[in-house]
């Protein structure tokens, strides 16, 4: 069976913040016990997610009435920063993350800032390889406050 997944900006009247928060948490849950420090996803609330959507550009992947995933991009000086790219576990492996990134790319190009940047954790080599396969290259490593070692890898994709 083929499912029609659509990606579109999060609508202004969107009200399913708790459901979206649950999807983000489920998508990031595999990191628990692997990354240090723990993911910022644990500090998210439905209200802070709603505020994030008001301050950034959010994209929603849906299949019929079901939410399959999301991505948020924050405008910076010369690029857009991709954050909280999440695909519900039941929908993973179907290219939805790629579709969400494509929507972010199209938006970035339309604004004249054809660069996407994101961070993933040092411990998540699989994520680093996945983003590299999508055209992202490492541009640096940073440490969270209180750490004397790199905890995150910063990756950029200069869009063609």
Describe this structure in words.
The chain is of the alpha+beta class. It has a domain of 110 residues: Gcn5-related N-acetyltransferase (GNAT) (Aminopeptidase), CATH 3.40.630.30. Helices cover 29% and strands 31% of the residues. The chain has 4 helices and 7 strands, in the order βααβββαβαββ. A 7-stranded mixed sheet has the order 1-2-3-4-5-7-6, sandwiched between helices. Strand 4, helix 3 and strand 5 form a beta-alpha-beta unit. Helix 1 packs across helix 2. The longest helix has 16 residues. The model has no long low-confidence stretch (mean pLDDT 94).
Task: Identify the notable features of this structure and list them briefly.
alpha+beta, Aminopeptidase, globular
Provide a compact summary of the structure.
29% of the residues lie in helices and 31% in strands. The chain has helices at 17-28, 46-55, 96-111, 125-133, and strands at residues 5-9, 57-63, 66-75, 80-87, 115-121, 137-142, 152-158.
Largest sheet, order of strands side by side? 1-2-3-4-5-7-6
Strand-residue fraction? 25-35%
Helical region count?
Answer: 4
Question: Under the CATH scheme, which class of the domain at 5-114?
Answer: Alpha Beta
Query: How many β-strand runs?
Result: 7
CATH superfamily of the domain at 5-114: Gcn5-related N-acetyltransferase (GNAT)
Helix-strand sequence:
EHHEEEHEHEE
Task: Provide the helix percentage.
Answer: 25-40%
How would you characterize the largest beta sheet?
Answer: 7 strands, mixed
The name CATH uses for the topology of the domain at 5-114 is Aminopeptidase
CATH architecture assignment of the domain at 5-114:
3-Layer(aba) Sandwich
Low-confidence spans: pLDDT under 50, at least 5 residues? none
Instruction: Give the class from helix and strand content and strand pairing.
Output: alpha+beta
- Structural shape: globular
Radius of gyration, in angstroms, nearest whole number: 15 Å
